[in-house]
């Protein structure tokens, strides 16, 4: 019978299944960070167990790491989480990319970069944005701390089988429109729960022409659509990205792996439980106006009027969000001024993101009303960016150039907004208080974030480039 890619990966990993009950599946890789692992290791200690497969378990620290003066962690909870992870990895024989490692970084940047993420693998982490790894055609999803413990102890996991959802992206992204705009556009159109209970497979021409890093940006935010995971079928782009990376098979073994990975693609005639379409051709740069990733719109558009929403729930939610965000219905998004810009996170903290940001920043200055920081997703991203001179472009333009970590994506380290501050952020969540108590987050692409930093307000990066060219 014809199978979807999800079904192939699932069937390859089921150890035991009974009708009406969750299956037991084998996990090929577990990634670990300092926030969701302490109780899991403690559980192992209490029950006298070992980590069953330390060779399939890799850890790094990211959420609590200061991006300035990283070894000087003053917050006692952050310090405890970081120290506990170091001790746990040492005690249980787990490889840790520690604060002094070039591979330290946001867990979902580090894994693919090292070649730990392969097509066809099952990958888990105590973190919702594990969906990022699905860009390689891996079945990757976030799990809770008790499940982290279960996988550490057994390398298996109980899982109910999700349904399949094809998100078909037709056409081609226009210049100035990025993978971030694409996923924001999909979520704005279909909502933050349209994929609940499903694993998404992104298909279509627009997806095929994305780079690996752009695909990761798309899959990263699958969770913001409610999905269990997001998948993109591996192709030559995937194989070229993986070839030669540290944890990827080398030489003849790589060619054999590629031959196997090619078999994962959804079969002709396989049926998804649901299919939705999205037109990339007509998409323009996006910016969120509210407090959920689905509350987004075209940058050329206006803050919506709650009265225009069709249901009472939507009206109430929009009203509340607009109030929290300190906005007025009907205001042009391009009239909204900002105080802060954050470029980074597991959504947009990779080298291509920094290149795209630097390309807009080059030769310009951050508005005097704006504080802007650039935070590489990992130590390796930082070094690569410095090799290319991107750090100099940012610093000359008035951005702060920081060390790797989750940073201002969420308020668990010194990078936080002050109450009332408004931020153009390349991260993935704009919930109330996400970047600091009473902080206001607008999600955008790296290029849009830089253009906003320079203008001091949101601006359509497509015109902005045009305008700048004329002025030059
Ligand atoms: C802290 C962690 C558990 C959390 C997650 O699961 O995603 C964080 O990474 C986030 O982005 O909100
Ligand atoms: S960068 Fe943000 S979304 Fe990604 S793991 Fe860190 S906190 Fe979560």
Explain what this protein looks like in three dimensions.
A hairpin with a 6-residue loop joins strand 1 and strand 2. The protein has helices at 5-13, 38-47, 76-92, 107-114, 145-154, 179-190, 205-208, 212-220, 236-242, 252-262, 312-324, 345-348, 351-361, 379-387, 390-397, 446-455, 461-471, and strands at 14-16, 23-26, 29-32, 57-60, 95-97, 122-125, 139-142, 156-159, 163-170, 198-203, 229-231, 274-279, 286-288, 296-298, 340-343, 371-374, 400-401, 422-425, 440-443. The termini are far apart. The mean pLDDT is 97. It has a 5-stranded parallel sheet, sandwiched between helices. With 472 residues, it is of the alpha/beta class. The structure holds 3-isopropylmalic acid and iron/sulfur cluster (SF4). Iron/sulfur cluster is lined by residues 62-63, 106, 108, 127, 129, 345-346, 406, 409-410, 427-428.
CATH architecture verdict of the largest domain: 2-Layer Sandwich
Return Rg in Å: 22 Å
Ligands bound here?
3-isopropylmalic acid, iron/sulfur cluster
CATH fold title of the largest domain: Aconitase, domain 3
- The span between the termini is 60 Å
Family: Belongs to the aconitase/IPM isomerase family. LeuC type 1 subfamily.
Organism: Paenibacillus tianmuensis
Protein name: 3-isopropylmalate dehydratase large subunit
Keywords: 4Fe-4S, Amino-acid biosynthesis, Branched-chain amino acid biosynthesis, Iron, Iron-sulfur, Leucine biosynthesis, Lyase, Metal-binding
Can you tag this structure with a few keywords?
five-stranded parallel beta sheet; iron-sulfur; alpha/beta; binds 3-isopropylmalic acid; Aconitase, domain 3; binds iron/sulfur cluster; 16% strand; 2 domains; metal-binding; 472 residues; Acnase/IPM_dHydase_lsu_aba_1/3
């Amino acid at each position: 019978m014809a199978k979807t890619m999800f079904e192939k990966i699932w069937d390859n990993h089921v150890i035991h299944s009974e009708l009406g009950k969750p299956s037991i599946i084998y996990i090929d890789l577990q990634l670990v960070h300092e926030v969701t692992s302490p109780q899991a290791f403690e559980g192992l200690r209490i029950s006298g167990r070992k980590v069953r497969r330390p060779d399939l378990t890799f850890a790094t620290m990211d959420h609590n790491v200061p991006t300035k003066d990283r070894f000087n962690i003053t917050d006692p909870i952050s310090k405890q989480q970081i120290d506990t992870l170091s001790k746990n990895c040492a005690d249980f024989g787990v490889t840790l990319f520690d604060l002094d490692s070039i591979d330290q970084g946001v867990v979902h940047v580090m894994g693919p970069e090292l070649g730990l993420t392969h097509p066809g693998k099952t990958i888990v982490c105590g973190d919702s944005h594990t969906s990022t790894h699905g860009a390689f055609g891996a079945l990757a999803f976030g799990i809770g701390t008790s499940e982290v413990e279960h996988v550490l102890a057994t390398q298996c996991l109980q899982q109910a089988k999700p349904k399949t959802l094809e998100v078909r992206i037709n056409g081609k992204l226009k210049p100035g429109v990025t993978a971030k705009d694409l996923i924001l556009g999909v979520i704005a159109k279909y909502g933050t729960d349209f994929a609940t209970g499903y694993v998404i497979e992104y298909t279509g021409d627009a997806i095929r022409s994305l780079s690996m890093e752009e695909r990761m940006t798309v899959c990263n935010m699958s969770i913001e659509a409610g999905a269990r995971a997001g998948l993109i079928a591996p192709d030559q782009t995937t194989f070229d990205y993986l070839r030669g990376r540290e944890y990827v098979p080398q030489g003849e073994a790589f060619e054999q792996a590629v031959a196997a990975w090619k078999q994962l693609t959804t079969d002709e005639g396989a049926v998804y439980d649901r299919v939705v379409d999205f037109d990339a051709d007509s998409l323009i740069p996006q910016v969120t106006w509210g407090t959920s990733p689905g509350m987004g719109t075209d940058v050329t558009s206006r803050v919506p009027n709650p009265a225009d929403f069709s249901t009472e729930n939507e009206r109430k939610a929009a009203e509340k969000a607009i109030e929290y965000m300190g906005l007025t219905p009907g205001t042009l998004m391009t009239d909204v001024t900002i105080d802060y810009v954050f470029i980074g996170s597991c959504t947009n903290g990779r080298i291509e993101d920094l290149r795209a940001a630097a390309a807009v920043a080059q030769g310009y200055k951050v508005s005097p009303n704006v504080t802007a920081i650039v935070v590489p997703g990992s130590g390796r991203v930082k070094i690569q960016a410095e090799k290319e001179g991107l750090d100099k472009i940012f610093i000359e333009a008035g951005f702060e150039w920081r060390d790797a970590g989750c940073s201002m994506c969420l308020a668990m380290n010194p990078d936080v907004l002050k109450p009332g501050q408004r931020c153009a952020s390349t991260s993935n969540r704009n919930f109330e208080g996400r970047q600091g108590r009473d902080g206001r987050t607008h999600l955008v692409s790296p290029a849009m974030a830089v253009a906003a930093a320079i203008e001091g307000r949101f601006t359509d990066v497509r015109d902005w480039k045009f305008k700048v060219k004329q002025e030059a």
